[in-house]
Design goal:
243 residues; mainly alpha; Endonuclease Iii, domain 2; Endonuclease III, domain 1; 2 domains; 12 helices; elongated
């Protein structure tokens, strides 16, 4: 029988000293004070459901769907008794509703069967639940369970690469790099700040003139140089473009 090769460990790759990461986050946190998740929830179960629904969907849309959903399925045990077909019309507007319905019911059944209906408070236990990846687990840990977590979504990937803090499109690499530079108590607020910055300022077409870290941003500096040379920089540097 062939021996299975172990996958090489993902290495953190900070492009700047940890102090520079902290200074960047300090500035962004002043620009986006009290950043937090924009999903509405009252407990870990509700946040887990809402985060699963938020895949490829806006938080605002999810917040329109979840009140009725939570009224009908107030806990994991109630959701576990449902069939995916029952959920589909209720969450259809969030997109990918068949896949999400299946994941939600399977998740609830696993939580009910394996964890007595309580959302587990460890990364290892969360990521084996159907529909739950590392990003979702970090959201629930950091916002509902009091365990430091650093969720990395498309906004965090774009902002950290574009500013020049990291160089990777792998969420786990970015998570490892950023958490190596920040104390655990800053992980969740830092992620929330980067997400809001990506939504409000550092969009795919960024509003650089409104950015609190424009002077230290690799993308913005390249844009200034391009402007001086008569060229227009319409895309981020090759190293920070999304694959």
């Amino acid at each position: 029988m062939a021996t299975r090769r172990r996958r090489p460990a993902r290495r953190a790759r900070l492009l700047v000293p940890p102090g520079a990461v902290r200074s960047t986050l300090d500035a962004l946190e002043k620009q986006h004070p009290n950043a937090n998740t924009e999903l509405n929830f009252s407990n870990a179960y509700e946040l887990l459901v809402a985060t699963i629904l938020s895949a490829q969907c806006t938080d605002a849309r999810v917040n329109q769907v979840t009140p009725a959903l939570f009224a009908r399925y107030p806990d994991a045990a109630a959701l576990a008794r449902a069939e995916p077909e029952e959920l589909e019309p209720q969450i259809q507007s969030t997109g990918f509703f068949r896949m999400k319905s299946s994941s939600l019911v399977k998740m609830a059944r696993a939580v009910t069967h394996d964890h007595q209906g309580r959302i587990p408070a460890t990364m290892d236990a969360l990521v084996v639940l159907p529909g739950v990846g590392r990003k979702t687990a970090n959201v629930v840990l950091g916002h509902a369970l009091g365990v430091p977590g650093f969720p990395v979504d498309r906004h965090v990937l774009r902002v950290t690469n574009r500013i020049g803090l990291v160089k990777s499109e792998d969420p786990e690499v970015v998570e490892a790099a950023m958490t190596s530079a920040l104390p655990p108590e800053r992980w969740t607020p830092a992620s929330d700040t980067l997400i809001l910055h990506g939504r409000r300022i550092c969009r795919p077409k960024p509003l650089c003139d409104r950015c609190a870290v424009q002077t230290s941003c690799v993308y913005a500096r390249r844009g200034v140089r391009a402007g001086r040379s008569g060229r227009t920089l319409t895309k981020p540097p090759r190293s920070v473009r999304r694959k």
